[in-house]
Write the C-alpha cells for this entry.
Amino acid sequence: MRAPVRLICLCISLLGSAALHAQTPPAPNPGPGAAASDPVRRATAVAAVVRVDATAIADAPSAASLGPRRSGSGVVIGERLVLTIGYLLLETETVEVTTGDGRRLPATVAGYDHASGFGLVRTALPLGLPALELGDSDRVAERDTVLTVGQGEREATELVVVSRKPFAGSWEYLLERPIFTFPPVNNWSGAALIAGDGRLVGIGSLVVNDAGEDRRGLPGNLFVPVNLLKPILADLLAQGRRAAPAQPWLGMSTEFVRGNLMVVRVSRGSPAERAGVDPGDIVLSVGGQRVASQADFYRRLWGLGPAGTEVTLRLLKGGEVRDLPVRSVDRAETLARPTGV
C-alpha cells in the first residue's frame, strides 16, 4: 500500500513547488557486481521487505499531518527487527508487520531517531525471513545502479543514483548526503535500497521534484543512508533513542523564498511560538550568525549547543528587525511516546 495521500501531499509541499521539467538523468554505471545482474540477490531483497501498519495515539499532534493510520514498508535486519522510516512510527499506539506470505505479527516501536529519520520495529515473534546485511552507503555514488523493493512487490525495481547532495527539510531536518534516485517510484515509504553487493544501503523517505544535482526539475526519490544508523543502532535497541544529547529544536517550519529564509509554520506550544515567532517572519541570523540557506540555518542552530540552549533569532517582522531569545527543547520530549519505547 502506498503512503497516505496526505503524507504525499505534505512531502511535496514541504519540498517546494518547482515544475517537473524533463531532464536527462546521468547514464547508469553498473560497475562490478551490479545489483541488476543477480537474481538471487533480487529474490533475497524481495523476501526481506515487509509491510508496516501503524495507528497513531489518540489526539497525537502528528496525526493531523501524517494521518491517524499509516502504512509503508520495512526491511528485516534481524530475527525480530525491522528497519523503516521513522514518520510511520511517530506517536503510534499499535504496530503490525505483515510478511510477503501474508503472516501478520504484532509489533512495538523499538526506536525512533528524529535526526536521521529512522525507526525500528520489534515483532512479538520471530519473522522467519532472511535479514539484509547493512552495506556501506558512503560508497554509493552518482550513476550507480541500485535496486529498490517496497512492500507487496514481487520484483525489485532498478534505479540510478542521480545525486548525493544535501537535503534540508522545512521541519528542522537535514541530511548531508542522502541518496537521490531516478526514476521516481510510488511505493517509497520505508522501501529498501540495495547496492550491487546485495546489502541494504538506504531506506525510502520521500518523493521529490529536484533529485538531480543541478536542481533543474528531475523527479525522483530520497533514501536515508544506512551509515547514519550504524553509530546509533545499539542506543536505539537499548533505550529507544540515541544516547548523545539531542539537537536543539525550535518548532518552526521554514522555506527559502526569493533569497530569504521565511517562517511558514509555527508548531503549537513550541519554543518558537512561546517566543513570539510568527509565520511570515524572515530569519536574518541565529546566534549572531547570518544564514545563507535553510541548510546553513540548521548547521548554525545545531552548532550552538544541545537541546535546552537559548538561541537568539534575529527576525524581520513586518518592517521591524527584532532579536528574540528562544529556549530550545528536545524534539522527542514534545511528542507522545510510541508504545514500546
Remarks:
- The first strand starts at residue 49 and ends at 56.
- The mean pLDDT is 90.
